[in-house]
Amino acid sequence: RRGRAGRVQPGECYHLYPQCVYEAFADYQLPELLRTPLQSLCLQIKSLRLGSISEFLSRALQSPESLSVLDFRINHKPQKSILCLGMT
């Protein structure tokens, strides 16, 4: 067994794919912050007034590439692109 079940009790694991496929697997899945689009997260950071998007994300254990943050900031200029719903 692998994962938490493997650490808690003994057991057997039956792989339903070839050994070469198994060996090509990454040891761990990339964090969601690195494998998903950042639009929603960046909008949440701005709406919660947590400061600069890039500064906030740089404090993550594994921060996203600066290009993906820059891409969001270029495509969402502050002039009217972010609306505060329920606020005037």
From TrEMBL:
Sections of the chain in a coiled coil: none
InterPro entries membership: P-loop_NTPase
Name this polypeptide is given: Os01g0118100 protein
Organism: Oryza sativa subsp. japonica
